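Thread: Serine/threonine-protein kinase ATR-like, structure

OP (GT): Posting the sequence first so everyone is looking at the same thing. Length is 184 residues per the record. Can we get the structure tokens written out before standup tomorrow? I want them in the notebook alongside the other entries.
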Amino acid sequence: PRLEDGSETVKKELARIIGQLSCIQSDLSQLSDTQTRSTPAPEILCHKLSLAAEHAGNTLPSLKATVVKPFLPLLEPQAPSSVKQAFLEALPHLCQHVNLVDGDSGSQEVLCALIGLMEDSDPVVRIRFSQSVRFLLTETTRNSEQGSLNELLVARLKEAFNNAKLKRDDDLRNTLILTTGEIG
């Protein structure tokens, strides 16, 4: 991936398609050409592809979290908010294909990066995380490692809430309350 590219647009598109990339890697989809023969155009400039998924969302994740690790810079604190939001929008599809609760170091690293978004400086990213956390939790109901994710989430929520309390950051506390509500 072109993660070193300075363009926010490139990073946002990489984040947006991470779910589809994981779908392709899991061999549950097929790329097809959407260009019609009636409008011949230079292939290099005008080639369009579509992704046809061959699953109904009820497959078990077959990929290790290491496939996501190269994309973790897209979730770092200095990354643009639009990039983080695009990554979170791709999370439902990503969770269908990538085992994020495997318990290995790769899974822990990805989960920590995602969970860190609950304290992001942008309230829109924090709200988007609270809306997306259910996809992580849905993933854990299919896996025996559910306890470790729940423990990690609760520990980070407590820590974040205490930090927000010390800083008197009411906006952060409010989004953490939203996240807590989503977890149940």
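GT: Both are above now. Quick notes for whoever picks this up: Residues 8-183 form one domain. The CA atoms of residues 144 and 167 lie 37 Å apart.
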